[in-house]
Structure prediction request, 269 residues.
Amino acid sequence: MEIQFNNGNPVVRLRAFRAIDDPRSCELFVEGHKRVLTSIGVEKVTSSNNEWTHNPAAFVMIVESLDKEHIYGGARIHVAGGTEPLPIEQATGALDPSIYEMVFDYAQKGTGEGCGLWNSREIAGYGIGSIFLTRVGVAISSQIGLDSLFGLCAPYTVKMAQSVGYEIEEAIGNNGTFYYPKLDLVATVLILRDLKNLSAADEENREAISALRENLHSVRIEELRKKKIEIHYDIEIPNMGNWDLQAVINNAKKGASAGIVDESSINLL
Prediction:
């Protein structure tokens, strides 16, 4: 996938939309994420993991070429009360059922989960699969109307999540952690409790997220570890007149059937 450059910097668009409004982009997301999972040894990737593409309470962020023909990364925000449990419930419910009641309690004011974060090798090292998509996930959650966000993090993303305001929830699992033997992975449960003010975020990320909220269409030269990338932010979610958060909240259920933990269904932030 050839990447466009401007003055030596990669150029991409970071766009947000509701999953059911853009099936083609969802398909590109699924294909790209599958390639990344396969490249790290997760071979068992089934179509059942992609039910979110039909979930009216799933929102998608993609990093794409300006002509929308290629996708280099993405992430999602799932709202509790959609047509499927949150990914964190599906991943950890069989190990600690108390996650169900916790999600339900937070759902009464509008909660969701940041999940499915990935980036392609072509754009690795520029922060696409880490801080910039994570910031946008927090930023667009205010458009959705959420009060809080859950996240299930791999060890190498915990500090990044904390930098934007997530906090480890020690009441779940083993002081907030779960061990997945098949993935050889420790995953940590975090919650961002103050989406409005981001009181637990560091100053740099709080200011960056506030700037994104105030200007949903902008072009910025972002820098991470001395590597620069030109990002065309297009994060005003279309068709939000059709979005009814209260109806989704009313649909939230306490408890779900998680079954056996499936390594291919774990969506990490």
